């Protein structure tokens, strides 16, 4: 099977003939081949999107929302099929696949509701017989660049607010996980979205992504991926005066205080660190633990880690699936070696797994380091794999300082029974998301998603805040006085 671009309401091979294999990370089997598009394909998609946007912007927002309700309905009907496809191409365990598809369903219905809101403001004018208000206006054609670790959820965070706000879009999914984009394009087609509103162009970031950023008719770029790539997107986008929304890396920590419910903390840490094999931007990779409970926490973590089943995510009994590909496996293992060289104590894991039943796949053993220095590389740099570093502290103030020491600022968590400590932490932790008595993952679609410092550039996905990325504010003044009024000059 070969996946081709979806442009202007039809499937198109385009100019190039190159394809690349899409591989199941659980066993190395080829699932399909995906087109490697080029600049000419992007140009075709943008032409279609630009034509369609003029008419789409005139469709009343509640009518645009009706398409999202239908998209959500079809996603709900096909939830299990979509989850199976997701697990096959990305590797995450099937219950997580179902959860991710559900997130897309929730986003469809939530953003459809915004079709009857899209609120602006009316305010009193400072002059007599004058009316003042602000409204949201669509921007035009937008470009969406999404990662492989959440191949449908993140795409819905971006595309659904873009649609309801009156924009059209070009979506470049990751080449590792194009099958979910193919499935979503089929749904877009089936609900009857007008041709050109939704366009999917497959290909690499270097070719397709760059062409999108440089295209003069794409007004917004919404990107999720690594901080290194995000910097390049921001630089290139800034050169072309585009609005650029970035959601990038994380080095997230769970703080465990001396009064914490340790059973709950262990459960939260394991889910946050080893869910999706640690390949979440919100994954817990640091545990900042009070010295009075450090030894007990270590023992409980080690005991619970023994029960983690590893294998193909389609197996309902598996808790930890593969990482996405061989380069990811090598990167994770290189950081484990760095941790050893830095003097951290390896308590568990630290191996590439090639046992019977795992051959052909990309599996890394869940790994736990202790006695990690807060400023060491494994405590500061994003590993993006199933590796935890335990860092000892003596107080909440020290824990907050260690948490905030990294260049990222996506998610943080604290386990404590002390309400005063909980409120101090949520105020002082320098991250876009803070959890109290929960792990670092589990964001809900009706709240803004994103972070501070090296994680983002001030924009947010999800929630009403996502509309800010895909709309411009327009201020409108209606003077019915019948004379020229000169604002501040005539109010003196």
Summarize the structure.
With 492 residues, the protein is of the alpha/beta class.
Q: Return the structural class.
A: alpha/beta
Oligomer: single chain
DSSP strand count: 24
Strand percent estimate: 15-25%
Q: Largest sheet, order of strands side by side?
A: 15-18-19-14-13-21-22
Number of helices: 15
- Overall pLDDT score: 97
Distance between the termini: 72 Å
Main sheet overview: 7 strands, mixed
Note the overall shape: globular
List segments where confidence is low: pLDDT < 50 over at least 5 consecutive residues.
none
Proportion of residues in helical segments: 25-40%
Radius of gyration (Å):
24 Å
Features:
492 residues; 37% helix; 15 helices; globular; single chain; alpha/beta; five-stranded parallel β-sheet; seven-stranded mixed β-sheet
